[in-house]
Structure formats: structure tokens, C-alpha cells
Amino acid sequence: MKIFDLEKSNLNDLAINLKECAFKGNPLVIKNALRSLDLKRFGQFLKGRMKYSNDDRQFNLENYLERKKWFTVIYDKDKSSVYTHSKTRQPLHNDNAWLSDPAEMVFLAFEKQAIEGGETTIYRLDNILTDLQKEEKQLLNDLQTIQVLIKKDISGKYFNHTTIINGENSIYWNYYRTEKSNNRTKIMCDKFFEFLESKENTNSIEIFKCKTSDILCINDTKLLHGRLAFSAKNRGDRILHQSMWYLNN
Ligand SMILES: [Fe+2]
Q1: C-alpha dihedral over 41, 244, 29, 51, to 10 degrees?
Q2: How far is the CA of 94 from the centre of ligand 1 (A)?
Q3: Is 149 helix (H, G, I), strand (E, B) or coil?
Q4: In the chain, how many domains are there?
Q5: Residues 10 and 112 in one domain
Q6: Among 19, 114, 206, 233, which residue has the least CB neighbours within 10 Å?
Q7: pLDDT in the model for residue 99
Q8: Residue segments in the chain with a per-residue pLDDT below the cut of 70
Q9: Ligand 1 center to 49 CA (angstroms)
């Protein structure tokens, strides 16, 4: 995890740090970003300076495609059966696992962080590979060779037919969205889910708390992320905006 304070620096330095984040798979937190940038200007920076292009495919609560540059993740007790609106812990996952041509970069802008809890958890692919190699060689082999189908889109147009780990380059993991129609796939997914759960309180996983006005930047294909539970009473006690961008290189 690298911290970059935008109030003490400039957009040129941010560009250098963002390139490193994309390339190395090390997450970047832009501290205080929303104090000097709004979401529109940040989008202009990604497009103009970084030459990224936006992937506006977002799926709504009914799993239908909606075109949106920024997708809001807001606590709402009336819709708390889904992670987008709940305050419960969210297990490790990729955001774009269900797309065969996913945008690499994911940005999470914290309009409002919860007062208590809501920390982000990160498990980098290089650490996952090292741990599996040491402790679960067969599982690693299965994750790199067994094809699975990951799907959210209800129309059937968008899905990802893939291995969960692609060599040593990328990972596509969403336990709940992976079809487990045969026993081999089900056993592998359950085992990997348990493996990830067992790592949460170890040094393999970074836990940190973004504050209001921060923007978290990740290369979604090179790490898994999740969040810890948080305290909230009213709608909007925690508000994030998420956007996805292609690197174009
Ligand atoms: Fe996520």
C-alpha cells in the first residue's frame, strides 16, 4: 500500500505513482484527493493525462447492465441484503471477475467513510501465489488449469470463461458469481474461499482504512480486495463512488 498526499504534491507526481500502481499491482491511496478534485475532474485526469479509457458497464441490483462512469456504493438498511448497500464484512474478490475483457484499474472515491470500521482488505496476487505454492500446491494448480464460468449479467451477454488464476499475471475471483455446476469446480471454489478466509488475520493481507476524501486506486486484475464490517445507522453513513478504466497499453 502506497500513500500519496495530493495536498502536498501535484498531478504530475500522481501520474508517476499511478503508473507504478498499475504496473506493480501495489495499491495506491490518494489522500485528500476529493478536497482538490471532484469526480469529473479526476475522470478528466485519467482520460487526458493517463490516456485511460472508461469502462462504463455496471450491473444494477437486478443484475441488468447500466452505463455509468461512476457507480455509487452506499449504505442503505432497506437494501442491506446486497454487499453494495450492507454494512457487513465483504470477503475478498475482484470487481470485474465476470467480464472477459475487464478494465484493469478500479478507483474507489470515499465521499464518506464510516466512523467505525469499513477498513479495506488487500491480498496481492504475488502473495497469493507465494502462499499457495508453499501451502496448497494442488489448489494452485487447479486454480491455474480448471476453467470456470463467472457471470453477473442477467441477459447472458457478458460473462467470463476463464481459469481463476491466469498464469502469474491475473486473477478473476468472485465466489458467489462463479457457477459451481460440477463437483470439481465446487470443491476448488470452496477450498479457495476457506484458504482466503484463513489468511485474513495474517501478514499476507493488508488492512487499512481510507478516510473521507481519499481515492483508493487498484489494479483489479493483480489483487483481491474486500472490506471489514462497519457501524452505520442511516442511509448514506458510508458513501463510495467506483469507476473502472482500461490502461490501454
Ligand atoms: Fe469490490
Answers
A1: -60
A2: 6
A3: strand
A4: 2
A5: yes
A6: 233
A7: 94
A8: none
A9: 25
- Whether residues 17 and 87 share a domain: the answer is yes
Q: What is the DSSP letter of 222?
A: G
Residue 100 in any domain: the answer is: no
46 Cα: distance to centroid of ligand 1 (angstroms): 20
171-207 pLDDT, tens digit each:
999 999 999 999 999 999 999 999 999 999 999 999 9
Letter for the amino acid at 16? I
> Do 236 and 116 reside in the same domain of the chain?
yes
Q: Residue 106 Cα, ligand 1 centroid: separation in angstroms?
A: 9
Residue 84 CA to ligand 1 center (angstroms) comes to 9
Close Cβ partners of 167 (under 8 Å, ≥ 6 residues apart) = 144
CA of 142 to the centre of ligand 1 (A): 24
By the CB criterion, residues less than 5 angstroms from ion ligand 1 are 95
Residues 86 and 184 in one domain: no
Same domain, 110 and 131: no
Q: For residue 77, what are the domain limits?
A: 2-94+105-120+205-215+229-246
pLDDT at 165: 98
Asked if residue 191 and residue 115 are part of one domain, the reply reads no
Question: In terms of Cα–Cα distance, which of 193, 196, 187, 216 is closest to 127?
Answer: 196
